[in-house]
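Q: Start with the shorter request: fold the first protein.
A: Done. Sequence, then structure:
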Amino acid sequence: MKDLRLIDKVATGGLKPDVTIYMKLPSSSSLGRIKRKKDRLELEKASFHKRVNEGYKHICARNKKRVKVVDAAGSQKQVHDRILRIAEKCLKK
């Protein structure tokens, strides 16, 4: 993770977004939603997806004020409404 933070810092010039929305969905559900031809990442083993998920959990935990976790289960409309509520709160600040 330390290497990723360094790469991120160099690539972004140290800039951070005001808010990041992380759409949380188990790997098994997210892979099932893919309707297009699978690319290299989708073809990876479950252990890879578990490590990626752990990385995102770590990022969320380290950035609790900035990262908003959205339950991505449900319909597109339900997820959209959840994200919209977060965006509206951020814009009111």
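Q: Next, the second protein, separately.
A: Sequence, then structure:
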Amino acid sequence: MEGNRISISLDGIRQPQEFFVAGGMAGPGRVYFDPATLSQLELYKSASSSLYGNESMGGSLNGRTVSPIALLGEEILGSAGSNELTYTSVNRSFGNRLTAGQGNGIWAVSAVYSYREGHERINNSSIPSDPQEFDSHALVFKTLRKGNLLDMEGTIDLFDQYTFTDVNSIEGADPMNDVASYVGHKSNRERQRFSLEAKLSTEEELDFADELSVLAYVQESAQSSVNSQNRLDHIENRLRKISFQTDLLGLNLKISKFLELDESSHRIEMGADFAESDISTKYLQWETFKDTTKDPSFSDKNSMAPSEARELGIYLQDEIEIESLPEWVFTPSLRMDKYKVTPTIDKAFMDNPSRKKFRFNPVDYENDPVFSPGLSIIRKMGAGTNLYATYNRGIRNPSAEELNGFFEHPATGDRPVIIRPNPELREEISDSFEVGAQAKLKSGSLMFAFFKNFYDDFINLEEQADPNLDVFTNQNVGKVRIHGFEMALERKLGDWLDALNGFGAGFSTSWSRGKKDENAEPLNTIEPWQAVFFFDYEFEKEWGTRITGTHRSAKKTEDLDSTSGDVPIAGSLVVDWVGWLQINETFQLRAGLNNLTDEQYFLWSSARRGGGHVASSTEERNMQPGIHGFLSLRASF
């Protein structure tokens, strides 16, 4: 699921929404953090709006950054640290991750710092990737104080990334066929977060709460870019500065209480989330001309109305166990969300040629309160095995960009491409059903699940009839259905045969299909069928190795909406190897080789991301890498 349908949060704080095309280029995506700063990652693969609200209709990704407790344990006593240096051949990059923690049982501090520098990713094609250089810095510093009643934790979270790309792929020397002899693109992505969290001490209980936490935070996220072109037409040089900014202020409250009644027990969790975002873009352009008698020009081409978005959510969950039904656990949940977007009048946006062409005026958006119920039923079968069934309602509110943002691309043929806003959009609603089983045994684990999801008012980019332009807009396309299954199996082979002690194997697969009800056209966002298998071996925690194969099926023409312009891709089989060696108590060495068969292939998720250039996403220069590897040395102290 793409298009802001999976929520991403760090330490309970939501990451900014993805900008698709606002500002005249593919947007900055949603990765404003370095995974090396995380100590824990949770993935919910189905709708979870009853707990996490907007954007969680396709699941949620929740990360926890390194903390004093993660490094030192609950007692926060002593010191701990590590340093890991990694070289990756696919982009000739070096990375270093440093962690440190110190505590005396009452006060503790922790820090994790990650640095990366490298170059463009080397593809598996005769046409090389555009030359690139990048570096990034990420720092998370936390301080924790345990009190008699409350534990207080403060966090400073900083991320900064710089990238320069020499865009050779669109450079040339023929004025009849080429646009520019040089195109350079600089990009900066940064995020700063300051938060303070108060938690009820683990040794304390209140009459109304066993657990209580209050989280207040401020977060600023921005991407800015500078694009410079030495052109071959009447323009000498064109310089464009484009930026995206999301400033977030929020407060989260969570309370849980365990109640034991005569014939049942209840673990009740309730909470409230409030967030206010200021969302804006800028698009500035300077041009100098070959005709020296003409003065340089400047234009402010802001393509989205600056907006303020407010979100309020209140939720309640009750985990119920009934004395007369000891094998069953029932967990109903309910969340209410309110969402409002208020654009402000911006002269640059009002002067935008696309806005004038369509006579568009930004409008306020406010939905009625949206309720997201959920229900989980677990049947304990004993020996670590559970059967389960779940229902969850998901929601996704339209973004400020979809409501009040334009995109216009110059004609590559004789028809310019324009994406226009749609202030009449309604929130998407999904109803997700899943049944399955999970077994965690001494010798392995097994999981399988079948799901069916019903989406109403699904937001999709649709083409509109126009005699002169290729015009697209986001529309509520009605009802969409998605169904599929997942299965995963892991097994230690030594339980079958002593000679196989230390060996293990695993297999997982996922398949899904989706279509629009009104015309039975396929839903292009669905990933092709995928299957993964592995074999591994570990010798008494001294060394280990694993080989993994990943098969991705083709995305065929019949799997695609014929009106979308998306291009089919072939299937692939990729084999990877990784190994590790514990040299001593301090040092560990890891190494790996990816794509051992040197497969030439595309990923569907990247093949679709053209930002108005869908066909170009499947050019040879955008192929995935061929054989490549990494080497890592870790020291723990």
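Q: Describe the second briefly.
A: Residues 22-28, 610-615 have pLDDT under 50 and may be disordered. The longest strand covers residues 235-260.
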